[in-house]
Amino acid sequence: MAKAAFHKSQKVFVKPVGTWAVVEQVLPQWVKGLDEPLKVHYDVGLGREFSASELVADKSGAPIDDVAVLNNWRINRARNRWKDTEDTTSHPYPGTFPVVTTDEKNWGGLARSELGI
Length: 117
Hints:
The longest helix has 4 residues, at about 110-115. This protein has one helix at about 110-115, and strands at about 10-15, 20, 25-30, 40-45, 50, 55, 75-80, 95-100. The protein has 1 helix and 8 strands. The strands form 3 sheets. It has a 3-stranded antiparallel beta sheet, with no helix packed on it. It has a 3-stranded antiparallel beta sheet with strand order 3-4-5, with no helix packed on it. It is elongated and about 50 Å long.
C-alpha cells in the first residue's frame, strides 16, 4: 500500500526528463477492500504519469546530485488525431505533435517515412 508523497500544485523535479514541473493531479490506484491506495502516480503535464521514485520535491535551491538520470529522455513525434496533414500544411511536421518519452526501452515515435521526411 502507498501514501501520496507529493500534493497537488507542488513543485517537483522530474528526474527522467530533467526538468521542473508542478503536480497537476495525484492519481491513486484503489483496490476494493483496502483502506489505502495500492499505488500513487502523479500527473505533471509531461504526457505520462510518474511514480514518486521519479520525482524529487523542491528543496529551495538544493542542487540535483544525480546527473546520470538527466540523459534518459527524448522528444518524439506522434500522429495527431484531431488535425490531418492537409489541415496543417504550414507546420514543419504536418499531422504530428511532440511527445516526451522517458522509458529506456521505448524509443517510440513515428518512422521518418511516416513523417514524410
